[in-house]
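Lecture notes, continued. The same structure-token format from the folding unit now serves as the input rather than the output. Read the line below as a description of shape only.
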């Protein structure tokens, strides 16, 4: 991350530290604030700016996770949603997943979407849509099995303030180009 990106990240982190959640107006605001703070941690560690939080049936936090695709070492499955589900299944195998909610800062990608369908979490809410990389907005075009699997499961935008949504978007965009170049350089042979 270059100096300008660090400066911008510090400004976003400062906005988050001053932000007062408004759960009466925006029911997912507290969870949204948490996933944005997790996204800051992911960026500072050298990863994509994405955070995820699993809430129990009462809306209390159970699991926090950050994207960790690049650091501490490259892991293709190091997406925040995947890390959260891994931890949930390891620590709480007795919980009914249909009663749980995952809040994530970015619309899930195809890999995370299918994992979340298989895991069966009742609700998945994202702060920011991701038309180029997310799949929730086009789930109806996926193979039929993904529509039949867990049909009661609900994916959709989180009810957060415009400010939290804007911060989540900016966190995702921070260092995105550099990390995508890094990812592509791993999978494309040199010319």
């Amino acid at each position: 991350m270059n100096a300008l990106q660090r400066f911008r990240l510090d400004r976003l982190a400062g906005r988050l530290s001053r932000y007062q959640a408004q759960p009466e107006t925006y029911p997912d605001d507290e969870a949204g604030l948490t996933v944005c703070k997790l996204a800051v941690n992911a960026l500072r560690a050298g990863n994509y700016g994405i955070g995820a939080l699993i809430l129990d049936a009462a809306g209390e936090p159970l699991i926090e996770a950050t994207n960790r695709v690049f650091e501490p070492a490259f892991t293709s499955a190091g997406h925040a949603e995947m890390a959260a589900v891994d931890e949930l299944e390891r620590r709480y195998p007795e919980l009914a997943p249909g009663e749980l909610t995952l809040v994530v800062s970015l619309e899930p990608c195809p890999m995370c979407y299918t994992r979340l369908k298989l895991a069966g979490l009742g609700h998945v809410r994202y702060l920011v849509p991701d038309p180029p990389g997310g799949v929730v907005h086009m789930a109806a075009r996926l193979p039929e099995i993904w529509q039949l699997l867990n049909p009661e499961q609900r994916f959709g935008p989180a009810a957060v303030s415009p400010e939290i949504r804007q911060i989540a978007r900016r966190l995702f965009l921070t260092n995105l180009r550099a990390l995508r170049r890094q990812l592509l350089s791993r999978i494309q042979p040199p010319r």
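Point for the exam: The first strand starts at residue 51 and ends at 55.
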